[in-house]
Amino acid sequence: MAKGITTRAVDYSRWYTDVIAMAQLADYSPVKGCMVIRPHGYALWEQMRDALDRMFKETGHVNAYFPLFIPKSFLSREAEHVEGFAKECAVVTHSRLKKNPDENSPEKIIVDESSRLEEELVIRPTSETIIWAMYQKWIQSYRDLPILINQWANVVRWEMRTRLFLRTTEFLWQEGHTAHATPEEGEAETLKILEVYRQFAEDYMAIPVYVGIKTESEKFAGADRTYCIEAMMQDCKALQAGTSHNLGQNFAKAFDVTYQSEDGKRSYVWATSWGVSTRLIGAIIMTHSDDNGLVLPPAIAPIQIVLVPIWKDDTEKAKVMQMTTEITSDWKGRIRFTIDQRDNYRPGWKFNEWEKKGIPLRIEIGPREVENRQVVLASRDNGEKQILSIDGLTDKLVHELTVIQKRLYDKALEFRNSHTFLVNDYAEFKKRIEAPDGFFLAHWCGEAACEARLQEETKATIRCIPLNAPVESGKCLLCGKDSFRRVIMAKAY
Amino acid sequence: MAKGITTRAVDYSRWYTDVIAMAQLADYSPVKGCMVIRPHGYALWEQMRDALDRMFKETGHVNAYFPLFIPKSFLSREAEHVEGFAKECAVVTHSRLKKNPDENSPEKIIVDESSRLEEELVIRPTSETIIWAMYQKWIQSYRDLPILINQWANVVRWEMRTRLFLRTTEFLWQEGHTAHATPEEGEAETLKILEVYRQFAEDYMAIPVYVGIKTESEKFAGADRTYCIEAMMQDCKALQAGTSHNLGQNFAKAFDVTYQSEDGKRSYVWATSWGVSTRLIGAIIMTHSDDNGLVLPPAIAPIQIVLVPIWKDDTEKAKVMQMTTEITSDWKGRIRFTIDQRDNYRPGWKFNEWEKKGIPLRIEIGPREVENRQVVLASRDNGEKQILSIDGLTDKLVHELTVIQKRLYDKALEFRNSHTFLVNDYAEFKKRIEAPDGFFLAHWCGEAACEARLQEETKATIRCIPLNAPVESGKCLLCGKDSFRRVIMAKAY
What we know:
Two copies of one chain form a homodimer. In chain A, α2 crosses α6. The relative contact order of chain A is 0.11. Chain A has an eleven-stranded mixed sheet, with helices on both faces. A five-stranded mixed sheet of chain A has the order 18-17-19-20-21, sandwiched between helices. In chain A, strands 4-8-5 form a three-stranded antiparallel sheet. By secondary structure, chain A is of the alpha+beta class. The first copy, chain A, has 14 helices and 27 strands. The longest helix of chain A is centred in the C-terminal third of the chain and has 26 residues. Chain A has three domains: 224 residues, Bira Bifunctional Protein, Domain 2 (BirA Bifunctional Protein, domain 2, 2-Layer Sandwich); 96 residues, Rossmann fold (3-Layer(aba) Sandwich); 71 residues, Translation Initiation Factor IF3, CATH 3.30.110.30. The first copy, chain A, is globular and about 80 Å long. The two termini of chain A are 26 Å apart. Chains A and B meet through β2, α2, β3, β4 and α3 of A and β2, α2, β3, β4 and α3 of B. β5 of chain A pairs antiparallel with β5 of chain B.
């Protein structure tokens, strides 16, 4: 066990926050429910953001930026939407502070009541309403469609119980908002993005996901259909890792957005929205990390290899640094790396620090390695060490990084598959979901009442109806009525 | 004159907003004072952000993210700081909305008064206070220094009179916040960033800048010294294009941030902060654009070359597209380009659209060009056309882009230099600053009273005391007292 990190067996929840603290990913801020994303955490987010951004651009999307503020009346236009967000809104009511005229008060500065706004502004919890107000201006004709806009932004949802990365009052995310001429195009876009999310989760974050559709009660407030990817954490709880919504014409109607087709007919526009957020960092932590700290997949690790040169005196240092420079000379653009030459820390301390920070590979170079023209290579994920000749080292390391990437994915997939069970008996399910010991594929009749009962009695939810679920006759786990396919039931973050 | 764009001679201010509208850089939002940055504007910002971000990282800085919200009491800790920002703060006071129990009211949704916050939160106008509250946790020893953190974020300052890009209630920016062991390091950092800003302005945005220090009355609220770069717009008004603040120990003292030195002594930490914002987009527009619309410097143009293939039928189209593909085959990674193959617009319409969007080079390829293995190349900035053989075209185009970059800079420099004047007579100054017809290098005694009088009587301000100003004896333009160097006086945005 690493110093400062509670083991998973002892306290999973403490382990999670310890890993974050020791890797310096984030810190609690003095603002209730808000966290600070520290440089290592932010560098990770930058890698994730850049990879996703490339994928969005390759599929024809462009970025834009819309206001942080949403007039209260806009949020109210789509009935289900405001219902979904009203209870967790940061509301701006004033625009000035002033000196407290009461000089004896400990409160030196107070809100200037004369600056009360005519209409309150809500900090965006999501931007459908402000964006569709703009689309109303921008869309006239079929020529203006499709609009394929994405936004990288901060959003605020006033959460009562918060957890670093997983649930914070303010978080960073991307939100795509598209407008289309036909429902078919809207549905195709929703599914295209779902596939982008699946690829990103599996190929970059090395997190296998179930792809499915949310039930009516779990869908986005204002959507016709919500698709999602769901991942299994090491404690067998589910984490929703991305959602793609088919909004139908709901927002087009709420904001009166119509277009004229080639044959002169006016119709409401079709919409989608989709997003992933910094909560994905929580998913990465809880999928790959271990009792020694963070483990990062090479594809998104801000630093893929750390080199720790080791010396006792200046003569050794010169030799060691010379070989370090030599072997890294062709890394730029191929490997993200850093050379830890800090004088005031010992090698062992450095090894430990980089281990906790989850850097996939560590290279040790001391005088003996220089002598033998070789390096010691240590893998973060399995702790193995190898000795490698420096001949053709760059290619070997690039290969090793892909090997690690695959190993992490395979391990996570193996874990998830071996913890996904068919279950047909409610009593058995109730017992096994307690801890929980997995995801459960169970029959469900489709009734909201059974879904509500499930949540009430077990705290589990229907995570999704898998898209590839085979047709299979069965009986609802709760009421015993006929069912034709299984859904995924699990406890969730 | 381009359709939809008022000429500069007729109405400079209208011209500015017309250029933005026609280039689709930004749009007014329904939220007072807030704008929407449209895809073309945001793509430009991404280019600027990425270039600056590289420069920050190359000089040892890392990114992080701090909360949007600042508790009111934090903002109040540094006396000058709160004084500077209190009058333009968006204040969050509640966390929930609810249905209006009065069903007859047109206001369906109202603020839930029971959700009143214990302490009001201010949307960050700048983040010194929240960041120094964190530095207080993070800094213990000299080993923790320096901290060289930058943040890319949105900030809010409640402005009464707003203008697209130049002054908006919400804007995007970067803010660097560094902590150092010694005042010398703090000053060196402040100047290092000032130099980064100068380079960015001149090498990327092609905007020549004066580098200087702000007067006491113009410095940042909470700084010991504020350095700045100042640019001249085409109407001879100044635009502050970046500021770098030496904060001394002001925030360290306000937030009690001390460190223990190697010899065990505790001292307050030294600080800097620095930032540039989306207002730089306004500077680009007003430095380079003309009556036909936007003109972008190639170094930051999101699209450097647009190719417009021209055809009458499918046979021609096939040939034209084949050559288009051929000549662009080695552009990826060297030239940012787009091929405008839209079927539903004519070439002339396309030329006009890309011209208004400021794309530096346009390539026209029709059947005749295919026949002759050549292309027509049109430069946005001077309107010149050339015919180029496709042999070695890529290198020629890359070179042409650098030529344009230099031409834009030289033109702006020539304009600025020919509109910067020495002035010794206040009556003459008052007359010439009216319109204004330039920047004025004038003697100033150093007294705040003269500075205040200058602003009151002429609406001009002292933009900065140039860093490289030679020592020169003279008399204050206003009071006639002794002065030893000239300062820059101008009207400003």
